[in-house]
What does this fold into?
Amino acid sequence: MSKSALITGITGQDGSYLAEFLLAKKYQVHGLVRRSSSGNTTRIDHLCKDGTHDGRLDLHHGDVTDGQALANLILQIQPDEIYNLAAQSHVRVSFDQPAYTLQVVGAGALNVLEAARQLQETKPLRLFQASSSEMYGDVRETPQRETTPFCPQSPYACAKVYAHHQAINYRQSFGMFVVNGIMFNHESERRGETFVTRKITRAAGRIKLGLQKKLYLGNLDAKRDWGYAQDYVQAMWLALQHSVPDDYVIATEKTHSVRQFLAAVFRRLDLSWQDHVEIDQRLFRPSEVHHLLGDSTKIRQTLGWQPKTNFENLAAIMTDHDLELAGREVYGQRFDLEGA
Ligand code: NAP
Ligand code: G4F
It folds into this structure.
């Protein structure tokens, strides 16, 4: 019989790719969707069309901060696997909304764990918790691995540390199959437009076509270990298929600065970024994470995972996608790089 999975955060970047991945593996996929007065399902609308996937995608209204309703849902659908991807995932925003971020990222994760614990009394299940490289913060060693101490530098990172430790606590206390995937930054053409990579590729495409002149950015010196989101959802799934639950760093093992990403994108469009980028002090953070670089030896050796998309290809995929998007603004139709 085919497996079933619940994805919280299915409308987000990772949730949408994970839904596609699991549907292709013939899972019954359930997704938790927040009620919105305007559309928040654009990343998964293509999966919801009549006749696609033999009715194997079910969406349920809900919110990870509503623990009782979440427990009711989980007891009702009895998933074999849960992927907790729901989050207020923007680090800068977490400084403006620290309590809200804690509710969603910290208490929300606890609600998922607690609901899973109740289901486990009658049925075994496996749970993936989306942990973050932001937890390393003011890094204590480089590269960062599973044993590197955490030193969070934002309300978001503090909340993720809480969720991470609760996941381990539930694994140890109740014998649950809970995995923390400590994911380093991963991006795609579905990345939210206020994260730096997508902000750059969206602006570069529009600048190329004369729709925009300037791009305002903050700290260009920050370095991130940037991968491609599709590679990371495969890692999430692999981590739940192993015989024992564990924690894994998921990373490319290469680091680049924001400036290098900027240069790669503008170079691809035959533009000079220096002509268009201005530094806006308001985009600097109260506390910055300067340098992230992951050591993913454990997941590579234990689960055989490895990323397929490198930094240059990632920048190219996102740039080409967003040039086409800008082209639609101008021409209302497809627009190819060759035509630019
Ligand atoms: P994302 O695009 O921001 O998606 C977040 C998802 O969570 C969206 O579906 C959002 O719904 C949903 N959500 C927010 N608050 C919720 C709530 N209270 N109840 C239910 N759902 C809620 O994030 P992502 O990049 O896909 O990341 C997925 C997960 O991995 C997150 O937990 C993130 O913190 C973590 N992570 C991401 C990265 C990365 O580089 N992408 C790295 C490390 C860890 P709406 O669509 O309605 O807003
Ligand atoms: O793209 P960012 O906003 O991502 P950040 O803060 O690294 O967080 C992302 O990755 C984490 C994993 O490490 C996730 F847990 C988290 O949920 C999220 O997905 O910023 C990257 C860097 C920062 O150093 C920031 O200061 O880019 C710098 N930056 C410079 N100018 C900017 C900007 N970031 C944003 N968002 N906007 C700017 O204008």
